[in-house]
Design goal:
The protein is an alpha+beta fold. About 55% of the residues lie in helices and about 20% in strands. Helix 1 packs antiparallel against helix 2 and helix 2 packs antiparallel against helix 6. The radius of gyration is 30 Å and the shape is elongated.
């Protein structure tokens, strides 16, 4: 198999992933990131065969039993390496690797150090001992870490079978490998055994191969989570995007309606947004969108789902929540937004408000989409009746009550009231 061909495929897929990411098409970016991981897996499978050839050359095997053991060992190693690259949760991968590693090599302690700034904002150490994982960002340096740092510096693996630390740490045998991908050093991976003389050349080759897989797993994890985040979040505000909101809303609707629990949705639309864009420009319009998103996020609960529904419109999904509480949250956001302001570079101060529509789902609501439409209708009624207010859509049975409130609004000129539609 031509490894260089798959390397070219891998690089092309990675370039496409980055191109689509720059264009904001995160769904395609995620797809090509996964294709890149697939091509890298193919490359590493070829490396398995190279490892097997080296193993045959170095062991001078003879007889069926030796070959049977060798191929069984190879099969277990292959399963472990496939499991490494298939897991996009790095710490979960470490936990599972630690459980499986004992099948092919003896290890009383497993150590990781991740230092690449493209993968993590802060470097950190992970140790696995006696089935327990400890993760520390700035641990006290010890002799094991010094060996790991030497491994990173030299970009070469280190094997010691008579390691005796000067302090009270356990001695024995160890193997440390740098985690390198396309000449970039990501950190190190090491194992330690309490017994001296535990490791040989074959163990060194196994760890080298596993380190290669861990390196690609690190990058896969970074790109997967990055693209997954962007595929679900709005590029400007960082809030959930429309597709993710609809997906969450439909799931919550099915769950809560089945259990006969309350659920509400709020639709929010910026008042006079077109006029702001026309007068101050689209950059100022973007700042208004960001300001509204910040006010929303500052005034909702941890259990609420908020996102940008499109343009200058936002949505909040409130699980296990009736219209009364939803209305209170909407009013809190409305008041905070009314008090807020945006200062442009030239000193111009922009004040903005928004109109709110609230709907509480009931047994008559056929779908989440229907509930969103009703909340949207309530929001448009808020627009028609002076803007900067909250309307609640509860059904036609109380239209007269809503009309009464509208009359009061006209009489007292209080455009900030909450209305029931």
């Amino acid at each position: 198999m031509n490894i260089e061909k798959y390397r070219r495929f891998s690089e092309t897929s990675r370039d496409l992933a980055r191109t689509y990411e720059e264009e904001g098409d995160y769904e395609k970016a995620l797809y090509y990131s996964q294709k890149t991981a697939s091509y890298m897996n193919t490359i590493f499978r070829v490396q398995h065969y190279e490892y097997l050839s080296r193993k045959i050359d170095t062991e001078n095997s003879s007889g069926d039993n030796n070959y049977r053991k060798m191929f069984a060992d190879m099969d277990r190693l292959s399963e472990i390496c496939r499991a490494i690259t298939a897991n996009f949760d790095f710490e979960d991968m470490i936990r599972k690797l630690s459980l499986r590693l004992s099948e092919i090599i003896e290890a009383d302690r497993i150590s990781f150090y991740i230092c690449d700034s493209n993968i993590t904002e802060n470097s950190y150490h992970i140790n696995m001992e006696n089935g327990l994982i400890s993760k520390v960002q700035s641990p006290e340096p010890d002799c094991f870490m010094e060996i790991g740092y030497e491994c990173i510096s030299s970009k070469e693996g280190i094997i010691l079978n008579d390691f005796t630390p000067s302090n009270a740490d356990k001695g024995g045998s160890l193997i440390y490998m740098p985690l390198i991908l396309r000449e970039n050093t990501l950190g190190y991976f090491g194992i330690h055994c309490n017994q001296p003389g535990s490791y040989g050349e074959d163990d060194f080759l196994k760890l080298k191969l596993i380190a290669d897989y861990i390196s690609i797993s690190l990058e896969n994890s970074k790109y997967y989570h990055e693209k997954k985040y962007h595929a679900a979040h709005d590029y400007l505000t960082g809030m959930l995007n429309r597709r993710e909101l609809i997906s969450i809303g439909e799931s919550e609707f099915i769950r809560l309606m089945k259990d006969e629990m309350k659920m509400s949705v709020i639709i929010i639309d910026a008042d006079g947004f077109k006029a702001i864009n026309d007068r101050y420009g689209h950059m100022a319009g973007d700042r208004v969108i960001v300001k509204i998103s910040e006010v929303i996020c500052d005034n909702i609960r941890n259990t609420d789902y908020a996102g940008r529904h499109g343009g200058e419109e936002f949505m909040i999904i409130l699980s296990e929540t009736g219209a009364d509480i939803a209305c209170g949250i909407a009013e809190r956001i409305r008041t905070a937004l009314e008090k807020s302001s945006i200062t442009l570079e030239d000193g111009t101060i922009i004040k903005t408000t928004a109109s709110f529509g609230v709907f509480e789902f009931d047994r008559e609501t056929a779908s989440f989409e229907e509930g969103v439409i009703k909340a949207d209708e309530a929001m448009y009624r808020a627009k028609q009746n002076g803007k900067n207010c909250v309307y609640i859509k509860r059904g036609i049975s109380i239209d007269l009550l809503n009309l009464f409130f509208c009359v009061l609004n006209i009489i007292f000129c209080d455009k900030y009231q909450n209305w029931i539609l």
